[in-house]
Specification:
2,3-Dihydroxybiphenyl 1,2-Dioxygenase, domain 1; 12-stranded mixed β-sheet; Glyoxalase-like_dom; Glyoxalase-like domain-containing protein; Glyas_Bleomycin-R_OHBP_Dase
Length: 233
């Protein structure tokens, strides 16, 4: 089924933002830009533009984004040292090393897809609740968007969440270096059930059993490529 959604962004959660932004630069050869803080949530982020390989874009089944700079990005998410560490505990629970935590898709009809999920039966797709969000960029501009959020993350983050940037300037429009998303796959003990849920969104994603490869754990995994090398998570 052809999806009416675009790949929006991939979230790598880390226990120490500055440390792992530096590690990312060593591995990929580019420095992520400061994205700003999430007030009241205890987190901040750093961003890189993200280009999907043609092969991956086709296999995922999501809408292709034309042009040299698609509205897709990589978010490195970690604790904000300027906020109470306890505030980030829920969003970063269990994060002790860089982890592909979750990913977002941007549907043409956000409300329509939320409604369709609420009415779904087989498979049952639980998106959680819709939340309004804000973030102040380092240049002072305030971004205002909404997203779906469910705790704990559905299917260990393999099920994407939905995002709608409303009238805000998309984060990928700001000046930043770009890296390439070479591969994206998932590890799950319930591949058939996960596949049915992804099928609801029109997404095709390779799903393997945890432990099939060294270091594989339940959830999302990725291979990124930059001018300085590759990073597999």
């Amino acid at each position: 089924m052809l999806s009416n959604s675009c790949f929006d962004h991939l979230v790598i959660a880390v226990p120490d933002l500055r440390k792992y932004v530096e590690q990312c630069e060593v591995r990929l050869g580019v420095a992520a830009v400061d994205g700003g803080a999430h007030p009241g949530l205890g987190t901040a982020n750093a961003l890189l533009g993200l280009e999907l390989s043609d092969e991956l874009a086709d296999s995922l089944g999501l809408k292709n984004q034309s042009g040299p700079n698609p509205l897709t990005y990589l978010e490195i998410l970690g604790p904000d040292p300027e906020q109470d560490p306890a505030s980030a505990a829920t969003r970063l629970a269990g994060i002790t090393s860089p982890t592909v935590q979750r990913w977002a898709i941007r549907p043409d009809d956000f409300d329509g897809l939320v409604t369709a999920a609420a009415r779904s039966r087989e498979p049952r797709v639980d998106l959680g609740e819709v939340h309004d969000m804000t973030r102040r960029r380092p240049d002072g501009e305030v971004l205002d968007w909404r997203l779906t959020r469910r705790t704990p993350l559905p299917w260990s983050g393999i099920q994407p969440f939905l995002i709608d940037w409303k009238d805000s300037d998309h984060p990928a429009r700001q000046e930043m270096p770009w890296v390439r998303l070479e591969k994206l796959w998932a590890a799950s003990d319930a591949p058939a059930a996960v596949g049915e849920v992804l099928g609801f969104f029109g997404i095709g994603l390779d799903i393997i059993a945890p432990g099939d490869e060294a270091g594989e754990t339940e959830g999302l995994h990725t291979q990124l490529k930059g001018p300085g090398g590759s990073w597999t998570l």
